[in-house]
Amino acid sequence: MAAVANAPALAVFAIGAVWGAIVAWHYHRLGLTLTHYDARGHLVVARRIFDSITPGWQQVGAVWLPLPHLLNALPVQIDFFYRTGASAVGISIASFAIALAALAWIVQRVAGSIPAAIAASAVFALNPNVLYLQATPMTEPLLLATTTLAIAMLVAEMDGRAVSGMFALACLTRYEAWPVTAVAIAAIPFVRWRQRGAFADGCREAVRLAMFPALAILGFSIFSRVVVGQWFVSGDFFVPENKALGDPVMALKEIGWGTQMLSGSALAWVAGAGLVVLLVRATIRRREAAAVLPLALLAMAAVAWSAFYKGHPFRIRYMVPLVAIEAIGAGAVASVARRAQVVVAVAVIALAAYELRPLDASAPMVVEAQWDRPNLAERARVTACIGRPDRAGKIMASMGSLGHYMQEASEQGFAIRDFLHEGNGDIWLAALDTPRPFADWILIEEKAEGGDMLARIARERPSFLDGYTRVCDGAGLALYKRTEEPGRTERSGR
C-alpha cells in the first residue's frame, strides 16, 4: 500500500530529474549557468576548503551556510567541475526533482487528490525562475528540497529523529529554513491536539523535533564566532539603499510585488485562495489538522522582509522560494470541487501554462542573473594584465566582493591559492597593515557597493598602496603591481 501511495511522487521525481536536466543543458548552451555572481561565489567557497594558501575547515566560511559547499567541496577540486559548475548543477537538479516530488506528495496527502498533486507539480515545474536557479550552482534548489521534504516527512508522521535531522540539514543550507523550521515545529502541538486531543504529547514531540535544528544553528553560530569573531553575520556586506529601509509595510509590499512578478497575478491569487482553504480545513476538520503544516513554508518570506526592512537592495531571487507554497496553494484549489477535481486541476494547469513560460529569457530571475554579464570582458582584460599564473605571484583581493572574479580567473588557469583573501586569517590581517611583503598584486573593487574593504582602506590610508603601481583597470576593478623598490604609489591608469 505504501508503494502505491508513493508511486505518483516517485513518477514526479523521475520526470522532474529529466526535465531539470534538459533545462540545465538549455541554459548551459546559452552560457548562463554561471552568469550570476553568487553562482561563481558558491563554487569558490567550496573549492577553497582545499585550494587555499591556508586550506582547512575555516575556509567553509561564516556568512553563507555550509551544507551546499560541503556537498560540493570534493567534486570542485576537479578543474572541470570547478570551471563549469557541473557538479553543483547536478546537486541543484537533484534538489529540484526532490522538491517537486515532495510538493506533489504533500498536496496528495493533505488534499487527498492526485489531480491536485499534479496541478501543484505543474505550477512549480513550469516556473521559469525556479527552472533557471536549478540550472545553476545557486543554493535555493537545495533549500527547497530540504524544507519541502522535511514538511512532507512531518505530515507523514515519520520517525521524529529523521524529521528533526532533515530540518537540521535545511537549517544548514539557507537562512530561510530557520523561520520555516520554527513555525512548522511550533504548529505540532496544535496539530496533535486537533487530531487526537494530545496537546501535551504534541509539546513533547515539538521539543524532540527542535533538538537537531537547534544544535545545527548553535554549532554554526559557534563556528562563526571562531572564524570571523561574530556569532551571526547579519550586515556590513551591503549598502542600505532599499526604499523599504525602516518601513515594514513597504518591505511586505515588495515581497508581494516580487511574488506576483515571478508567477503572474492570477496564479498568485489562486494560490492565496488555496492556502486559505488549507487553513480552514485544518481548523474545522480534525482529521485534516496536518493541512496547516505546509503553511510554514510561507515563513520563508521572513528573511527577505527583514533584509528589505534593513535596507538590503531589492533582489527578485529572494522571493523565488515562495513558489513552493504557491504551488501547494494552487494544488489545494484543485481539490476543492470533489466531483470535478480533474476539471479544476486542468484549469489550474492551463492557467499556469498561460502565465508561465518555462524557458522565458525575460523571466525576472534570468534577467537579474545577467546584471553583471557586461563586465565579464572587461574583467578578463584586467586578468590578462597579470600574465601567466605560474609567474604572477600572489594577488591580494577581497573574496567578499571579488569571489566571482576569482572563479572567472580559473579560465586563465588561476587557482584560489593564487589569491590572498579574508579566509587566510593572520596572513590577510598582516597584509592589510603592510601588503608589500605578502602580495605581488593588489586587486581592488572600486565601484560596487561603494567599493570593497581594500578600496576603503586605500581611501582612508593612501600609504597602503605605497610601493605599488596601478597598471590596469576596468569594470570597476583596479589592478596594482608591486614595484621593485618601495616608494610612492604611481597611478598611471591603464
Characterization of this structure:
There is one protein chain. This protein is mostly helical and 494 residues long. The chain has two domains: 2-33 and 85-369, no CATH class; 374-491, no CATH class. 59% of the residues lie in helices and 5% in strands. It contains 23 helices and six strands. The chain has helices at 2-29, 37-48, 67-72, 79-84, 86-111, 114-125, 128-133, 140-155, 160-171, 177-186, 188-196, 199-228, 248-263, 265-284, 301-309, 323-334, 341-355, 364-369, 376-386, 389-392, 399-408, 426-433, 453-460, and strands spanning 395-396, 419-420, 441-445, 468-474, 477-482, 490-491. The protein has a six-stranded mixed beta sheet with strand order 2-1-3-5-4-6. Helix 1 packs antiparallel against helix 5 and helix 14 (265-284) crosses helix 16 (323-334). The longest helix is centred in the middle third of the chain and has 30 residues, at 199-228. The chain is elongated, with a radius of gyration of 24 Å. The termini are far apart. The mean pLDDT is 91.
